[in-house]
Each structure stands twice: as structure tokens, then as C-alpha cells.
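Section 5.1 Outputs to date
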Amino acid sequence: MKYETVIGLEVHVQLNTKSKMFCSCSTKFGAEPNKNTCPICLGMPGVLPVINREAVNLTIKTALATDCKIAPFNRFARKNYFYPDLPKGYQISQYELPLAKGGHVEIVVDGNVKRIGITRIHMEEDAGKLIHGENLGDKDSSYIDINRSGIPLMEIVSEPDIRSPEEAKEYMTRLKAILEYIEVSDCNMEEGSLRCDANVSVRPVGSKTFGTKAEVKNMNSFRFLQKALEYEIKRQIDTLEEGGKIVQETRLFNPDKGITVSMRSKEEAHDYRYFPDPDLVPIEIDSKWIEDIRTTLPELPDAKRERFVKEYSLPEYDAEVLTTSKSIASYFEDCIKLYNQPPDSGIQGQAKVISNWVMGEVLRVLKDENLEIEKFSVTPLMLTEMLKLIDNGTISGKIAKTVFEEMYKTGKSPEDIVKEKGLVQITDESEVIKVIDEVIAENPKEVADYKGGKDKLITFFVGQVMKKSKGKANPQVVNKLLKERLGSV
């Protein structure tokens, strides 16, 4: 039997606020354990929480960026469950009256646009953190850090519209880009600012009834999400094929083993005993509040991608890669503003040259070194100065890659590197002819084959000349002179 996968994602986003959801404690990451706490986030009796207005603003902003309908009246509820790092014995969240519903995020699947619906976006507070003793040399104990307790979270719940791990990864990539563009979160997955739970089920192809779902909790990387889903889908199909039944449960992904493991049977909503929080007033959002925030929305990823194709004549693929990250897109456009050579090439020609370097060398180094572009030592000014050295014939494209590596490692300007390393391109024809004649003398068989009609051997000779000149010979000059010298041999 063939099966269809049904996936819905619950994405937890830490909001960019300086203080917590219901108190004035700092949200700064990495503080000494239990330092950023007060009676409110410690859950002491008799304290009164106050709603963080900026957290509401950022959630409204996200709702607008994802085409959600914003509720004019919403309120917080108490979600009751016991866990050691939940001081109050309940979590303040939103339940029957969330801030927003009914939006979407568009993804591209096999070249086609697919719309993933958003069920709801609501606000809540984060729980604390358990630190188990084996990490501190005390295997018999666990410790509680309340610093994270009360930090403002936004939960974005998708419709069960996702049909594969690849689609789930694409959805998360698009959603993360939107969140970064509108600056509601730093989306730092390593620090827990962006986390994802996945509801996964399988059903026979053609069936309209959903299968029993399992929830895989707290995945903090795109790779883990994809691997967890791949394993969970296979596990469920294998279970059904063997005549077993899928149990509704919560599971955890073990990245070391690449498997999901059962954590607990899945609670239904009524198990949490939701009821309106009596200490917090409902939130009324009028049209002026919404429109004031709408005016702060920047150009979003989809609009920027379309503009890059139209304004810079970039291929769709280039525009997609460059706009996935707001900071990469800004780096690219900063280069465009600085790069004005050759004067007659037009902005489209310049854009493609810059796009090739950003997508190639820049992104390669960022990936290899696990760097954010904000910390990248090769600035847009340095990159464009290097490109101008190629344009005016000072260095070749091959030498430029050496210059680029030195810029990254040393932070020096391309001009200084070229001078220090003696990398100036050889353009003097008499010097190039000397190298060409040496190559011709060393390869009589290839010369004979070339003269016998194997024209494609010209690339062999160009390669030999470039190798012998250590990449310094001008490739255009080499091509021209090689054809002349081989024709006269």
C-alpha cells in the first residue's frame, strides 16, 4: 500500500523584546543562572503580571506579514500542567481567543508555488530550563534555571498542508526569512530563539481521513527537522505494514542516533484545563493600532525576490538564494551600489557578476566557517574593489580567488594583497609568448593533434600556460596568442 504523509508544524519564536512577557526582567541570553528573575517570573504568590506591549506589537507585525486576520479581541489563558521548570504550575498562553488566524506562507515545490496555511498565531511565555547534573559532574542531581521563564514567545501553527520533509524544511526556511526581514526575532536556533514541533501522520493515498498523529518535539535546526520527519514517517509506515497501530504520543528526536523515541502519551487539550487568566485584562486591537504597525513593514522576501529578477535581470534561482536571508540580500545590494565598473556594462551585468561571487565564494566561506555575514571580514567595499581589479586587468579571475581567500583570512584590502603577493596579471604579450613557446615545445604530440583538426585541445594549451604562469597570464591574451603561435608552428 502507498501512503501519503500529513505534517503540521508548530513554530515557537522568541520575540525581540528587552524585557519578559509579564515583568521587567531582562531577556538577554547567557546570563548567570537565575540572575534574570523576579517574584513575577518566579511565580511567587500574590504577584500581578503586566502584558508587554512590544510583544503584542511584534506578534501583530508577524500576523500582517503572513496575511493573517487579526482578532480585535483576544485574551490570555492559563494552561495547567506540572513540570519542575514551570514555577507557577501553569503557563500563560492564548487558547480560544488567539491574536491572529487564517494566514499563509508560500513555498516553491518542484518549481511550483504551494500555499501552506497558518491556523493561528498566539502569544505565550516560555518555561524555564532543566540542567541535568551529568553535565556538571553531578549525575544524581538536576538543576533549574528560571532565566528563560517568562520570555515572550509567539507560536505559529500551520495547517496540515505539508506533505514531505522537504516541504517542511522549505516552509521553515521561508518563515524564518520573513521573521528576520520584519525583525521580530533574531531566529538564533542554537540559542533556542526558533524551535519547532511537528505533528506527523500517514494515511493511504486517496484517503480523506487523517491518520493517528505523533508529535515530535523541540527541533532546533532545519537538518534535525528533516531527519526526524524522515525517520518518523518510515517508523509509522513500517508499523502499519506490520499490522500494528500508531499511538498518539509525544516523541523526541535523538540526533546522535537519528531516531525518535517516545516521551509520553499525548495530552488532549482538555487535559490542560485552560481557563481565562483572571490577572490579565483582555487585549482590544483597533484598526489604528494595526495600520500604525503596517506602516513599519519592510519589503518582504517574496517582493524583494521579484524585484531582484525585474530590476537586476537575475535568474530566478539567483534571486531566490540571495533573498532567503535579509542580511545576504543587503550585502548584495550594498555591492551593487559600490560597483560601477566597467561603466558600459549596465546594472544587470554588474548584478550577475556580484551574484556569482556572493553565491559562490561568499556563501561557501560562511557555510564552511559557520559564520553570519554580519561578522564576515570581506566587506562589500572590499569585494567590489577586488572585482574592479579584475575589470581593469590587474588580476585574473583565477587570481581573484586567491585574493579573496587572503582578504577573508587577513582583512587586508585587495590592492595591498596584490602588491604584497606579487599577483599582478601578466598582460605584456612578449612575456606571454615566452610561456606559450615553452608549452608548445614541451607538448609536440598535442601540437600535432591540434594541427590535425582537434581544435578542442586549445583548452589544454590554455591550462598549461596558466599553470606555468601561476595563473598570472591574462586568459584573453593567452587565447589570442596561442591560436596565432599554433597556427604558425
